[in-house]
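Structure tokens please, single chain.
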Amino acid sequence: MPDTDSIPKGQPPVWRAALFGLCPECGAKTLFDGPVQFQPTCRACGLDYSRYNVGDGPAAFLTLIIGALLVAIALTLDAAVQPPLWVHVILWVPLTAAAVVYGLRVAKGALLASEHQRQAAEGRQLDKPND
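Here you go.
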């Protein structure tokens, strides 16, 4: 992982871009258009976000990890306090939705910022010399 000293001026580190939805080029807070949808381009510097292929890879892993953690916490709460079922519904449904959405924002922002800093691009086939 590169040091923050090697990042050009104006570019935030990956963790900061991911947590706050910052443009990986200029640091403006323009990465997201909706809860987890990227803007087409940065309104401040014009960086084209659509050229990065982040995809929905983090979605499955985050949903499983967050689901496992929240189920473990819910079972612990149920064993300790034994609240009625409606308390579980009121507590865990919005908490799960919020955790998944925020987790997706952070994961997708981190992937996009990493791709930008490492100048990742689609793979290309090299031309073979004629024999």
